[in-house]
Amino acid sequence: MKLLFTAAGLAALALSPAYANCTYPHAPSHIPDGNVATMAQMLSAQKAVRAYNDHMMTYLHCIKHQQDQAIIKASTKLTKKQVAEMEKIEVQKNNAAVDQLHTVADQFNAQVKIYMAKHSKKSN
Questions:
Q1: Of 6, 46, 56, 71, which is least surrounded by CB within 10 A?
Q2: Which of 24-28, 67-71, 84-88 holds the top average pLDDT?
Q3: Which pTM was predicted?
C-alpha cells in the first residue's frame, strides 16, 4: 500500500513541472475599513477584488487543464489509483483556492455593508 502511494507521489512529482505555468494569484493587499474609507478607496478595492477573482478563475482553469494534460501525456504509465490521486490533489488545490477567494470576497462585502450603513445614515 505504501508503495502505491509512493508511486502516485512520484508520478505527481514527475509531472509537476506541467503545473509550473499556473501562477497562484495574490489576494488584494488591503481591504479598506468601511468606517473610514472614501468612495474612491472602496471602488479601488472593488476593482482589486474583481481582478483577483478573474486571476483566480484563470488559475483554477490552468491547474485543471495542466492536470488533464499531464494525465493524458502519462496515461499509459499511470494506474487508475495514481490518476485518482492526481485528481484528488487538483480538487484539493481548487477547493483551497476557492475558499481563499470566498474569504477575500466576504471581507470586502462586510466592509461594503459597513460603508453603506454609515453613508446611508448621513443621507437621512
A1: 6
A2: 24-28
A3: 0.77
